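TA notes, week 10

Several of you asked for a full example with nothing omitted. So below is the full record: structure tokens for the whole chain, then the designed sequence directly under it. When grading your own attempts, check the secondary structure regions first.
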């Protein structure tokens, strides 16, 4: 692992510059000194379908964030040497990502999640030597997937989601049999913006959250 990745491809050059100065919207600005520190890994790779990102889907049996697509990540443990080490450890535990095959590109601004009271540091990495991936914790992770950037920016895969009550919950992506919404979708959009990959899409396309997704979200 290296802190700067000279081996990363040119398509990541803009992101490496813009990622660390990614704008943080008011809803995610740090506001609670007692927030628990956490980290997630935004892992870029090049697969058979071109540049991609690694996403996981949390197990439906969890009490928190059940069934939700997410970046690999979790709380920063006392034995972790900061957010970078925590993000790499979590990616190994959750998806089988070998830390030695990842070059760290940068860290992004911290994001505060008021609902769970976590202060999350996104860590971006280049998957220099991809490893075989699979759910590492069957009770925690249901699926792992390499999602091509081309699918994420395809307007046909973009939508807004709302609560059945009519309250808009924000943007979402429908990719690889996953509905990516909430915090992960909000962070994804900013990642795509920072890299210069985002494309215009129809924000008037609004759908209700499916009942099964809503039931899982209601757990916390």
């Amino acid at each position: 692992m290296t802190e700067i990745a000279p081996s990363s491809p040119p398509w990541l050059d803009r992101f490496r510059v813009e990622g660390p100065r990614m704008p943080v919207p008011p809803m995610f600005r740090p506001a609670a000194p007692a927030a628990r520190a956490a980290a997630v890994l935004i892992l870029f790779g090049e697969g058979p379908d071109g540049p991609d990102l690694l996403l996981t889907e949390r197990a439906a049996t969890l009490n928190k964030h059940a069934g939700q697509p997410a970046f690999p990540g979790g709380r920063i443990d006392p034995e972790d040497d900061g957010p970078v080490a925590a993000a790499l450890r979590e990616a190994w535990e959750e998806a089988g990502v070998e830390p030695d095959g990842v070059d760290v590109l940068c860290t992004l601004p911290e994001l505060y999640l008021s609902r769970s009271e976590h202060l999350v540091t996104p860590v971006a990495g280049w998957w220099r030597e991809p490893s075989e991936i699979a759910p590492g914790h069957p009770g925690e992770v249901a699926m792992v997937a390499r999602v091509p950037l081309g699918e994420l920016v395809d307007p046909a895969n973009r939508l807004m989601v709302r609560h059945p009550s009519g309250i808009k919950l924000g943007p979402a992506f429908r990719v690889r049999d996953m509905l990516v919404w909430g915090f992960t979708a909000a962070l994804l959009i900013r990642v795509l913006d920072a890299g210069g990959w985002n494309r215009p899409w129809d924000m008037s396309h609004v759908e209700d959250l499916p009942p099964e997704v809503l039931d899982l979200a209601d757990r916390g």
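Residues 1-5 have pLDDT under 50 and may be disordered. Use that as a sanity check on your answer.
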